[in-house]
Protein: Trichome birefringence-like N-terminal domain-containing protein
Organism: Sphagnum troendelagicum
Amino acid sequence: MEPYMIRSSCKGGGGGLGPICWTWRAKSSLLFLTAMVLSMMFLMGWEAAPLSILLFGIPARAEDSIPAAAVAVSSSRAADAATTSQLAATAGGPVSCDYSSGKWVPADDAAAAPRPLYSGKECSQRWSWLTPEWSCELNNRPDLSYEQFRWQPSNYAQGCDLTPFHAHTFLERLRNKVLAFVGDSLARQQYQSLMCMITAGGKDDQINMMVEDVGPDYGFQRANETRRAAGVANHFKATNTTIIFYWSVTLCHEETLQIELTKTQRKTLTLSSATAGSVALHLDQPAHFLRDYFTKFDVLVLNSGHHWNNGKKQVNKWQFYVNGHPVTPTDDLQVISNAYKFAMNATVRWVSERIDNTTNHKQVFYRTISPRHFRNGDWNTGGTCDSISFEADKNVTVPQQGVIVRDLVAENAVVGTNVQLLNITFLSQLRGEAHISKYGRSNHATQDCLHWCLPGIPDTWNEILFTHISDKYQDLANYNFIDLDSSRS
Ligand SMILES: *[C@@H]1O[C@H](CO)[C@@H](O)[C@H](O)[C@H]1NC(C)=O
Ligand SMILES: *[C@@H]1O[C@H](CO)[C@@H](O)[C@H](O)[C@H]1NC(C)=O
Ligand SMILES: *[C@@H]1O[C@H](CO)[C@@H](O)[C@H](O)[C@H]1NC(C)=O
Ligand SMILES: *[C@@H]1O[C@H](CO)[C@@H](O)[C@H](O)[C@H]1NC(C)=O
Ligand SMILES: *[C@@H]1O[C@H](CO)[C@@H](O)[C@H](O)[C@H]1NC(C)=O
Ligand SMILES: *[C@@H]1O[C@H](CO)[C@@H](O)[C@H](O)[C@H]1NC(C)=O
């Protein structure tokens, strides 16, 4: 692998949009807004659409609007020690390694893999693994120094450094295995990052040539334009390894209500919400994709969070359901933060109960929330992140007070289960300068301080994932490069 510094002539422009808490004041504009969603979906890709539509809403607060209940600010907590050792224990590694604390260091030492790990331009243009607006290089971001750091865990000297990423090793570890990312657009970023890391940004032709689309095996249309597929499944023939992304922002089963509700049901709901076309969001049922394919997955990485807000609830016409019945208007679960906590707990329990503990084989991770960095406003009120700077030599190991360092919804959901945290909130929080900011979609006035430039921070999430996978499967894997290398000729 070698770093690339290729500049393209593509025009840079405004960034994407972050989700936001907002107040619905424009019920009468529903039809218009629906039309807007559809056209935005067409123009900008389906994930951005519900966010764009919020332009017409009134923002509820200007601060980083991760659902309030989702996170905790810098503070200590008695449960720390217990949960950290639980993580280490379930990771199966010989040492109790906590990869969540540490610092970013310049990746200029000889031992470190050269940064960036791949060329975003190659990955985007040559093989289409990477969505073009996420390659900041492609969008003329002038300063790419954010690519030049690696994450060093606090206890690296005790053998807890991250395993240097090596594509062949990665595929060998996952020989005859299936890895799936299920979640929102940040899961898509992690999936695309991994595809680029494995194929070195599309540079490794021989690996790339051996990738086949197996989407139909998982109920997906054959992928052509990755951004629009409900899911993507790629099979690496060399090692019989499958890597999947499936888009499910809530992780819950969503069911479009085709029929009018019964009179009794309607009485228990508010008038506006009882319309056909609403979506029943079953807080206690996992997305059917998980239900249908969970047994096939060897490694599963879940995430959620940024869509659990009232704006999304309105736009998507979600009706919360539990036990197959609508949640009543006065129920605590109507409060979105409660619904979110309840649903994550339920999803994680559902998954955990289906992990065969006797084989110690399947690995399920819940990735903690990826922080946003809008400053001086939110995504639609001029919030920016292009002036945030990062100075490695300051040795930042603790963020400023009041800054989000952990994801309590995730942490509470996994307690007592064998689902592991991929605890990346803190390390990502330190890297506000690495967001897309204004180097994303062109012709967009707002900055994207939610998604990350790729190559970038999600690469590190994958390095941590790789380290866990390496710990776990080192004995199980038929570890050699011979098959892979011979199949390349
Ligand atoms: C997640 O990481 C943060 C930052 O290192 C830490 O404060 C928190 O305790 C970690 N959570 C768990 C459950 O280990
Ligand atoms: C490929 O991997 C799958 C599991 O992911 C397994 O069921 C299948 O038998 C493997 N095929 C071969 C030829 O080993
Ligand atoms: C995608 O579809 C277009 C038009 O249908 C076709 O020209 C192109 O070859 C397809 N690309 C792939 C990778 O299948
Ligand atoms: C999480 O789910 C389990 C099983 O459904 C339940 O027993 C427990 O009370 C739930 N915990 C919370 C905090 O909701
Ligand atoms: C495996 O262990 C976890 C954690 O103790 C538990 O939640 C789960 O129900 C167990 N799975 C099975 C299939 O027994
Ligand atoms: C940062 O930490 C390294 C060792 O971890 C030390 O050598 C260096 O002097 C520190 N730099 C600053 C500016 O404190």
